[in-house]
């Protein structure tokens, strides 16, 4: 199998089985994929390994970072006007902020 196919297959197996998977090169030069717990060949023959827990933690970190970036961008573009001016304007700003907070809590 090609290197691209081996990587795709190993990634799919790792995330489906939630088991460590290794890609190794056999003596005849072909590539193969197997669970790491079943591999008993030469360590030098391992081309790449996939740890599903590392993959999942990487995705979780990225989604957390993406959510924080969206929140920062939203807050930067949707700031209420500064609370200067008449008492009516300040009350309107507070009401708008309270309704936004209530709406965002309901969406969670």
Task: Characterize the structure shown.
It contains 3 helices and 3 strands. It has 2 domains: 77 residues, no CATH class; 29 residues. The mean pLDDT is 74. 57% of the residues lie in helices and 14% in strands. The protein has 108 residues and is α+β, with helices and mostly antiparallel strands. The protein has a 3-stranded antiparallel β-sheet with strand order 2-1-3. It is rod-shaped and about 80 Å long. Helix 1 crosses helix 2. Strand 1 and strand 2 form a beta hairpin. Keywords: Membrane, Transmembrane, Transmembrane helix.
Care to give the gist of this entry?
This protein has 108 residues and is an alpha+beta fold.
Key words describing this protein structure:
single chain, 108 residues, alpha+beta, 2 domains, three-stranded antiparallel beta sheet, 3 helices, 57% helix, rod-shaped
């Amino acid at each position: 199998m090609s290197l691209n196919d081996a990587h795709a297959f190993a990634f799919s197996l790792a995330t489906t089985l939630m088991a460590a998977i290794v890609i190794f090169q056999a003596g005849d030069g072909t590539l193969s994929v197997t669970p790491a717990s079943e591999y008993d060949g030469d360590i030098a023959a391992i081309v790449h390994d996939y740890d599903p827990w590392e993959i999942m933690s990487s995705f979780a970190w990225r989604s957390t970072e993406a959510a924080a970036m969206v929140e920062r961008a939203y807050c930067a573009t949707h700031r209420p006007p500064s609370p200067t001016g008449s008492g009516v304007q300040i009350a309107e700003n507070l009401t708008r902020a309270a309704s936004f907070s209530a709406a965002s809590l309901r969406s969670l």
